[in-house]
C-alpha cells in the first residue's frame, strides 16, 4: 500500500512539469473581442479590443482597440504587439466580428486561424457587422462596461429569443458538413447602441443574403425548438397584437427523396397574447380568430423565407443533412442540383393557451 502511494506521488510530481507556465494577469493584455475589416482583396484590418483594469473599487475598465493591417491575421497580431506595453493573450476571447463586405468575399481563413488556437473555447461567438468593426469596438456604450461584454450579453439573449443559435463550433460544423450551410447574427452600430438587425445567410464561408429580425425569429422556428420570442400579427381594421412564444416544436417529413423529393415542415407553436390594444382577448371565440390570424401570417412568411433560401441556394435549415439521415444511399450531388426547385411546404399550427393578465 505504501509503495502504491509512493508511485502516485511520484507520478504527480512528474506531471507538474507537463503543465504550461501560468501567466500573471497583470503582465498581459487580455483580448476580449476582435474585429476584421475589409481593406482590399488581399489585405485585412485586424482590430483587437482589450479591457484595461483601473485602480480603485467599482471603477470600470477602460477599453482600448489596437489596429493593424496586413495579409494575415497572425502578422497583424504581431504588428499590434509593437504598440502594446504588454503581450496579447486571446484565451479569454469572447467574440469575433467580421465586416459585411469582408464576409461577402469569404471568412474561412480568418476563422481557421482562431480554431487552430488551442487556448480558445468552442463557444466563441461570431457575428457579421454592417459597417466598420473598428468603429463599433471603439465606441463606449452606456448599457455595459465594455463593448465585448455588451456584445456577449446582446447576442446571448437574442439567440435565446429571436435568432438561430450560432458560435464558432456551429459555424465550422455547418461549413464542413454536407447538406447544410452556416448562418451568423447580423448586427449594426446605431448611435450609442448595438442592434441585432437579422441573420446573415452564408454559402460555405461567403455571405450571400440576409433575413431581417422578424424573419430570423421564423427561421429559428424552422430550425430548433425554443421557448421565447415575440411575434407581431396584424388583425382586422388595422389592429395589431403580439404573441409570445411559450414553446415550439418542428418536424420534417420527406417524400420520394431519391427521385423527385418533396418536404413538409410542420411547426407547432404554443403561446400567449402579450399585447392586444382594443381587442377583447377574454372572448374565447375571438381567441380562435387570433390563432387563425397568427397561423395565416406565419405560414405566409415562413414559406417566403424557404423560397428565399432556395433561390440563394443555401440550406440554412439543414434539410439535406436531415434527408441524408433518413435515406439509405443518399446522393448529395443530386440533392444539391434539385434543392432550388424542391417543393417545400411549411405549415404552422398555433395554440394560444393564455391571454395575459386580463384572462
TrEMBL record:
Gene3D superfamilies: Nutrient germinant receptor protein C, domain 3. The keyword Membrane applies. The keyword Signal applies. It holds the Pfam family Spore_GerAC. Residues 22-188 form the Spore germination protein N-terminal domain. It is found in: Membrane. InterPro entries: GerAC_N, Spore_GerAC-like, Spore_GerAC-like_C, Spore_GerAC_C_sf. It is a lipid-anchor. Residues 198-356 form the Spore germination GerAC-like C-terminal domain. Keywords: Germination, Lipoprotein, Membrane, Palmitate, Signal. Belongs to the GerABKC lipoprotein family. This is Ger(X)C family spore germination protein.
Amino acid at each position: 500500500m505504501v509503495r502504491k502511494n509512493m508511485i502516485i506521488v511520484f507520478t504527480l510530481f512528474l506531471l507538474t512539469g507537463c503543465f504550461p507556465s501560468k501567466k500573471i494577469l497583470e503582465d498581459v493584455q487580455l483580448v476580449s473581442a476582435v474585429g476584421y475589416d475589409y481593406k482590399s482583396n488581399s489585405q485585412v484590418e485586424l482590430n483587437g479590443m482589450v479591457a484595461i483594469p483601473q485602480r480603485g473599487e467599482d471603477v470600470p475598465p477602460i477599453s482600448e482597440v489596437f489596429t493593424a493591417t496586413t495579409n494575415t491575421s497572425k502578422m497583424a497580431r504581431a504588428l499590434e504587439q509593437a504598440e502594446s506595453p504588454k503581450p496579447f493573450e486571446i484565451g479569454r476571447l469572447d467574440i469575433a466580428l467580421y465586416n459585411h463586405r469582408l464576409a461577402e468575399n469569404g471568412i474561412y481563413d480568418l476563422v481557421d486561424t482562431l480554431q487552430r488556437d488551442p487556448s480558445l473555447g468552442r463557444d466563441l461567438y461570431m457575428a457579421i457587422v454592417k459597417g466598420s468593426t473598428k468603429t463599433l469596438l471603439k465606441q463606449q456604450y452606456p448599457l455595459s462596461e465594455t463593448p465585448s461584454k455588451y456584445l456577449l450579453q446582446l447576442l446571448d439573449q437574442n439567440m435565446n429569443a429571436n435568432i438561430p443559435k450560432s458560435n464558432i463550433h456551429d459555424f465550422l460544423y455547418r461549413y464542413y458538413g454536407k447538406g447544410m450551410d452556416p448562418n451568423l447574427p447580423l448586427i449594426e452600430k446605431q448611435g450609442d447602441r448595438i442592434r441585432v438587425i437579422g441573420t446573415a445567410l452564408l454559402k460555405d464561408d461567403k455571405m450571400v443574403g440576409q433575413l431581417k429580425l422578424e424573419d430570423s425569429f421564423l427561421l429559428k422556428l424552422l430550425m430548433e425548438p425554443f421557448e421565447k420570442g415575440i411575434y407581431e400579427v396584424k388583425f382586422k381594421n388595422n389592429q395589431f397584437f403580439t404573441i409570445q412564444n411559450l414553446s415550439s416544436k418542428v418536424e420534417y417529413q420527406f417524400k420520394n427523396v431519391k427521385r423527385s423529393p418533396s418536404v413538409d415542415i410542420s411547426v407547432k407553436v404554443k403561446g400567449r397574447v402579450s399585447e392586444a390594444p382594443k381587442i377583447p382577448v377574454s372572448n374565447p371565440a375571438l381567441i380562435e380568430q387570433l390563432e387563425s390570424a397568427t397561423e395565416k401570417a406565419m405560414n405566409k412568411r415562413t414559406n417566403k423565407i424557404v423560397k428565399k433560401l432556395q433561390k440563394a441556394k443555401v440550406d440554412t435549415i439543414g434539410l439535406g443533412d436531415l434527408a441524408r439521415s433518413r435515406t439509405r444511399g443518399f446522393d448529395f450531388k443530386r440533392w444539391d442540383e434539385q434543392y432550388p426547385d424542391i417543393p417545400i411546404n411549411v405549415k404552422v399550427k398555433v395554440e394560444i393557451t393564455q391571454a395575459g393578465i386580463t384572462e
